[in-house]
Write a structure and sequence with these properties.
2 copies of one chain form a homodimer. By secondary structure, chain A is α/β, with parallel strands linked by helices. Chain A contains 7 helices and 9 strands; from the N terminus they run E-E-E-E-H-E-H-H-E-H-E-H-E-H-E-H. In chain A, strand 6, helix 4 and strand 7 form a beta-alpha-beta unit. The longest helix of chain A has 26 residues. The two termini of chain A are 28 Å apart. Chains A and B meet through helix 6, strand 9 and helix 7 of A and helix 6, strand 9 and helix 7 of B.
Amino acid sequence: MHSLQFTAESSSNGMIERDFTVGEVPGVLWSPASGIERAPLVLMGHGGGNHKKHPAMAGRARLLVTGRGFHVAVIDVPGHGDRPRTAHDEREIAELYRARAAGEPEGPIVVRYNAHLAQLAVPEWRATLDALQELPEIGTDGPVGYFGINMGTAIGIPFVASEPRITAAVFGQHWPDVLAEDAKQITIPIEFDLQWDDEHIPREAGLALFDAFASTEKSLHVNAGKHKELPRFEADSAVRFFARHFGRAVTSLI
Amino acid sequence: MHSLQFTAESSSNGMIERDFTVGEVPGVLWSPASGIERAPLVLMGHGGGNHKKHPAMAGRARLLVTGRGFHVAVIDVPGHGDRPRTAHDEREIAELYRARAAGEPEGPIVVRYNAHLAQLAVPEWRATLDALQELPEIGTDGPVGYFGINMGTAIGIPFVASEPRITAAVFGQHWPDVLAEDAKQITIPIEFDLQWDDEHIPREAGLALFDAFASTEKSLHVNAGKHKELPRFEADSAVRFFARHFGRAVTSLI
């Protein structure tokens, strides 16, 4: 088992940013600057082609950290961010660009490639959570959430299905083909986003994935608009979802 | 044209409640107790079998009034609250109870009866809005919203489709049969609630009604649960929806 090594630290506007590694996996941990106190942790999965510090990640982290006092961690998925691409990554990415240029459906390639990445990333997430819970400001007894859309959902659903420490999750915008079976194993509260006019994911596919979750508490948020037009206010909604389930349980370490 | 007559006034916990009539139609206007200032107005439609001061109405009004500084008005629908039932009302209600006791679908009766009530109620809402806008604290230049689920949607959709003064609306939980044609005329931002396990309204019917709106900005909130299990947090969401579209535009009269 690898422990967590901090490699850099900075802070701005009330948020401390600490880069870390767990073995070969690079990550970032954002925490409130107002003293490191024990608080709930939200793990976030970045989208395909992006990385752990993409503005969408940093923006959502700011809402959770400065707005609610939570800790937030993101790791780079294999082939993304600071991690090298394999020949397999290069082939799949080239295939995606080829399909896009030819006007062919991207779904089959994204579904296949993301499933491959999930097989690699799920054990990395588990090791990262093990290491994060050794930090005194996180610990093993606080609530842990997961928040990831697009590729963050393709990795998050198998991760959450096999990880009892996660007690609330926000997912969205993926196909049911590979994921529905794992979704049927998930019983924790979830919020799920889909776009009504998604040019890649048919409505029926998005609704089928939402339907698959076994959770008695599940909410679907559909918005008019295309794949990339998920409204900003859904990030606010996700933050409220975690706050509703985790409370504002910020307690002092001392 | 009837003007608005106030008939009673009380206040509690930061909210003034003023009963009124516009012609034969009884209503209630809730306003912030902290001085009557010009502020956005939200019209709310009550559910079938309920009335203008049902706890669901008063509770939502409190969120809008004390939380956001808005004015909120509700009127009794014909045959409801302080208004007499006609022989037609009695026949339809008896038919609904008979179907319910026999385990037959309620939908066809609710759809038919609510469409009848909407024909009566839409001109009453228009006259009520005319009269409310004569009050200095409301006026004709501020934003006006509409918020009604169930029967509040059956009346609200034809009202909003024919009423350009309404600029944002929250609807939900009804069938598309009668309403889809009017929904196609609606282009303002909407939020729409439906229950994923509704024992009366099939999923496909609820989704079809959401789909019918011509609005470029529309959000669907689906929650696991039966018809009457719409979560309380959807009222909070509706309030945020109006706040997002109307701002906190509370300006002094003076």
